Amino acid sequence: MGAPVGTLPSSEMRYRTLVEATSAVTWSCPASGLHVEAQPAWMAFTGQSAEEMLGAGWGEAVHPDDIASATQRWTDAVAQGVPYFSEHRIRRHDGEWRRMVVHAVPSRDADGRIVEWFGMNFDVTERRQAEGVQERTRHMFAEAERIAHLGSFQYIVSNGTTQWSDEEYSIYGLDPAGPSPEYDDMLARCIHPDDAVLLHETFTRAMQSQAVYELEHRIVRPDGSVRWVHDRAHPYADAQGRLERYIGATLDITERKAMEAALAQEGERFRSALEAAPIAILMVDVNGRIVHANAMLERMFGYAHDGLLGRTVETLIPTALRMHHIHLREGYMAAPSMRRMGVGRRLSARRADGSEVSVEVGLSHIVLDNAPLALAAISDNSEHDAAIARQAQARAAAEAANLAKSNFLANMSHEVRTPLNAVLGMNELIRLEGVTDKQAGFLAKQREAGQHLLQVLNDILDMSKIEAGKYELVERGFNLVDLVQSVRDMVQESAHAKGLELSVKVGSDRRHFIGDATRLQQALLNLANNAVKFTEAGGIRASAYPASESDTVALLRFEVEDTGIGIDADELPRLLKPFEQIDPSSTRRFGGTGLGLAITKKIAEMMLGTVGVSSKPGQGSTFWFTATVKKASAEHATPDVAEPSAVLLHRRHAGRNVLLVEDDAVSSEIVQHLLRATGLQVAVATDGAEAVSFAAAHRFDLILMDLSMPRIDGLEATRRIRLGPNGANVPIVALTASAFTEDRAKCLAAGMVDLTSKPVEPEALRAVVLKWLDSKGAREGSTPA
């Protein structure tokens, strides 16, 4: 039944509101003239049900003597699109025949097409006694015409006169009180000069063939304004078939014409913009036909100007992909959406010469000249794809080089650390056996050289990890006082050997924080070692304190002040660059790689801090760095350890069984000695295969597992032990000569719980053994004393 009420033009809404306020029987139907939905007013008046009145069933309520003429007039009106008028009898619900005046007018859309009929049936049975009803009816229909901006007219062929409705006068800007203009006068005074001849010729041809007259043309109103109108009139003949009159309607379409002109102008500007666009543009209609291709697209695909117009867009698709593209195109046109360039669909396209090119397509749905279109923006991705391929090759080469470098450094780390472990471990064992003072001095020098070599190796590996982006932080609770004092303990011997006074200070009441204590210690130790190295007399002071803090975090500042040789201000910026030293001869004189300060700078930056130095030649230097850490709550606070781990191990775990898996005899001997000295029972396996057998046959409290071994390596051995009868709960700790973070991840993934590095640091080894024996004891219900 036409458009829903919610979408009706405002004039039609007003019309419906108006008629609903009357006592007339109102009804509506679609352009076909057949009722498709119930009409409550008609049903109430006639007593017909919805089923009885639908279609042309309303005729059953019309008097038998009137039905033929009433239906013929209605059929003619619907066919010709002209207002319908009839007076006939209709049976009321109580059976009484009532004389009704029936009038219906068509409602048209902006293009002049009929979309719905509105009708009213007036009961005029008593009108013969009350002629005033007729005047009110005429006024009602005049109002209906005014609301719809639809005038009506008659042209009498015999004398060339016209009869206009009030709304027709209003459209032409004339006074309804005046006479209707004659045809010739109307052409001269009311029709735009450029359209008068066209109107006359069109109307004359219609009359000659008694055809429908229809034309859109301009009129000129008395005030000089120009309006557009749409005329449509149907011919009526007398009984002898002679043309008698034309009855028609005039619709004011000025606003529609203005909109069409604006859209046409906008469309032209749009086409000009597309033509000038620096990217290839294509427009395709709902059937896949190309309706516009700009010059850039024609050049991209090698076509002459307008050489693509009218072809299907699949012309630009390789033959093997065309059917698939048709499916994609039809799906898009059925449910169009915007797809921006860069996130659009990548396609292989076909040029005029048959060659293929990779393209990126961005799509949007537009309506141009009332036609829905798909607009495609196309970019040639050939260079982009080539660049990506080159980047991928370069990335692969870089990754391969980085992997080769990592493998080399891992092998170097293992090959250097393993014999270094023997050197430092045997040094420790000899010292523990008891030596003379002179021998102790020799051993100290040997240990110092070994530690220096180890530091050089660690610096190189750390810088490699920094360059590879694998230098990571591990947060845990730490004691700030213990951290600073541990650095003091590590450099105290070398400082005292040079006669330097060494002091530390912690300027904070809070001692416990959460952060990467190992990296903080490393950074501070780098500064302290440099201070000892470059100071010949005087003293060194290391300090730490919060530079600023909030409720949850603190920015700690670490400083090392010395009375060493000092540095010129111009040379200071070079200090923080990798492998840089102020005087190359200092490498030979003082030793070192020039990496320590660069590593300290990286550590500070990773902890949202910075580094700095102030120095005066001959007076000394102050190096500092800052790092952001979290404040530790009570549960994160690290307990103070009053006793060495060796003592605690002997007290808590003497007699416990430990399996040592180590293929290097010297390393094995060192670890055995350190563990047995604390009262532990140590069994030894020389490779992974033996370790699996031992673990299956015996229950161990802890397993220390080397990683690089013949037959079965430590990772595979761990996986097999975990699947064995005694392997589910035993702690397995890796002994590794590698210093790479990914090795820790591999160990944990294989089923290990921790790892400690080689060369073995006695205290570090005992600490990790104590940690996991304590943990196992807690799980088994024995509380460490």
3D architecture notes:
- This protein is of the alpha+beta class.
- Helix content is 42%, strand content 24%.
- It is built from 23 helices and 26 strands.
- The strands form 5 sheets. Strands 15, 16, 17, 18, 19, 20 and 21 form a 7-stranded mixed β-sheet that branches.
- The longest helix has 52 residues, at 382-433.
- The protein is elongated.
- 30% of the residues are buried.
List the helices and strands and how they pair.
Elements: H1 10-20, E1 25-30, H2 40-46, H3 50-53, H4 67-80, E2 84-91, E3 97-108, E4 114-123, H5 132-147, E5 150-156, E6 161-164, H6 166-172, H7 183-189, H8 193-208, E7 213-220, E8 226-237, E9 243-252, H9 254-276, E10 280-284, E11 290-293, H10 295-301, H11 322-334, E12 345-350, E13 356-368, E14 371-380, H12 382-433, H13 437-467, E15 476-479, H14 480-497, E16 501-506, E17 512-515, H15 517-533, E18 539-549, E19 553-562, H16 585-590, H17 596-606, E20 611-616, E21 620-631, H18 645-653, E22 657-661, H19 665-676, E23 681-685, H20 688-697, E24 702-706, H21 714-723, E25 732-736, H22 741-750, E26 754-757, H23 762-780
Parallel strand pairs: 16-18, 22-23, 22-24, 24-25, 25-26
Antiparallel strand pairs: 1-4, 2-3, 3-4, 5-6, 5-9, 7-8, 8-9, 10-11, 10-14, 12-13, 13-14, 15-17, 17-21, 18-19, 19-21, 20-21
Helix pairs in contact: 1-5, 12-13, 12-19, 13-17, 14-15, 15-17, 18-23, 20-21
